[in-house]
Amino acid sequence: MINLEDQAKKRMKSLLLVDDDRLILSTLSSGLSRAGYMVSTAESVDEAEVWLDNNDKPDLVILDVRMSGRNGLELAEQLSRHHHVPFIMLTAHSEQDVIAHANISGAMGYLVKPIDITQLIPAIETAISRAQELYGLRGAKQQLQTALDADRSVSIAVGILMDQHRLGQKDAMNLLRDSARSRQIKLAELASLIINSRETLNVRNSA
């Protein structure tokens, strides 16, 4: 039986709010929850790190820059480098150095407090949309690079088979395909095995 509540939650975007001001945290959390977001909160960078390590990635993190103890800029770098989670930054002042740091860290947005929900929601939606586009492009680029690497490996393996068996390019390619099919492995995987075994042989011959 379908749980309608669970289905509704799946459609809701998840947010993590990080701010050491409990009043701001409570106000924003309540407003965003009423607007239809799944909202979690953390009152410090340490608390946010624990949350991130023990929960699914949120769609967006909203973090304050100036917090007691470790500041939001430190968390921003971790979100970008290690967690790969998009974020927008909040601060009480429009500080040029903070804005520059936010851009370098990969922030999807930057807002100056005080801010109300009607201002925050468009920024959230824009940030999530931008992040999805960027991550989509990165994924496509990675897939293209993987395909190029595979093609390169296959070409090298074909050259090795041509040399070893005195075959033409077409016959060497057919041999590679037939061998991959009989072993039930991917063409690129067999190509890598052939290349690695050739490298091992070359090392032994030169020893």
Keywords:
Rossmann fold; 8 helices; 5 strands; alpha/beta; 207 residues; five-stranded parallel beta sheet; single chain; 2 domains; Arc Repressor Mutant, subunit A
Instruction: Report the order of strands and helices.
Output: HEHEHEHEHEHHH
Helix percent band:
55-70%
**In angstroms, what is the radius of gyration?**
26 Å
- What is the assigned CATH homologous superfamily of the largest domain? Response regulator
Architecture (CATH level 2) name of the largest domain: 3-Layer(aba) Sandwich
Biggest sheet: strands side by side, in what order? Answer: 2-1-3-4-5
* Biggest sheet descriptor: 5 strands, parallel
Q: Which structural class best describes the helix and strand composition?
A: alpha/beta
Distance between the termini: 67 Å
H/I helix tally: 8
> How many domains is the backbone divided into?
2
Give a written overview of the molecule:
- Strand 3, helix 4 and strand 4 form a beta-alpha-beta unit.
- This protein has 207 residues and is an alpha/beta fold.
- The chain has 2 domains: 4-115, Response regulator (Rossmann fold, 3-Layer(aba) Sandwich), CATH 3.40.50.2300; 145-206, Arc Repressor Mutant, subunit A, CATH 1.10.10.10.
- The chain is elongated.
- It starts with a helix and ends with a helix.
- The chain has a 5-stranded parallel sheet with strand order 2-1-3-4-5, with helices on both faces.
- The chain has helices at 4-11, 22-34, 45-54, 72-83, 96-105, 117-165, 169-183, 187-206, and strands spanning 14-18, 38-42, 60-64, 87-91, 109-112.
